[in-house]
Amino acid sequence: MYMSAAACLICAIILSRNFKFYILIPASFLVVVAVCLKGGYFGHNLSRVALEAIILLTSLQVGYVFGLLLPLIPAILGAALKAPFGGVPAPSLSFHAAWAAAPANGDSSALGQTRRPSAGCGAGA
């Protein structure tokens, strides 16, 4: 039963990479037919056949979902490896607000403000 469950898991991973979830309908039918034929051949009682069918159908569905999530594992691991020790990703350092990005030469026209002429030193008027 364990080898059959592993075979269903691997087959479902392969099916999920190539087909939509509708493939689970005929695959489930084939699993139930195979379990019933095997149970009838070896003379197992109905409860054992039902239990084996449930286990194999569950492994078929779990394998299909795992096969769908398989391409996401590198992205998940990459995000986890880039995160600091606490597990929360660091904020992006490339975003700067317009008010925080003042030019180094003191020209504020780049921020959308006009530069006022200075009155000079000691100008009273």
Structure write-up:
By secondary structure, the chain is an all-alpha fold. It has a domain of 55 residues. It is 56% helix and 0% strand. The chain has 4 helices and no strands. Helix 1 runs parallel beside helix 3 and helix 2 packs antiparallel against helix 3. The longest helix is centred in the middle third of the chain and has 24 residues. The chain is elongated, with a radius of gyration of 33 Å.
Structural class by sheet pairing and helices? mainly alpha
Q: What Rg, in angstroms, do the CA atoms define?
A: 33 Å
Order of helices and strands: HHHH
Oligomer: single chain
The N- to C-terminal Cα distance equals 98 Å
Largest sheet: none
User: What shape does the CA trace take?
Assistant: elongated
Content of β-strand: under 5%
Helix content: 55-70%
- Tally the helices: what do you get? 4
Low-confidence stretches: none
> How many E-type strands?
0
Mean pLDDT score: 79
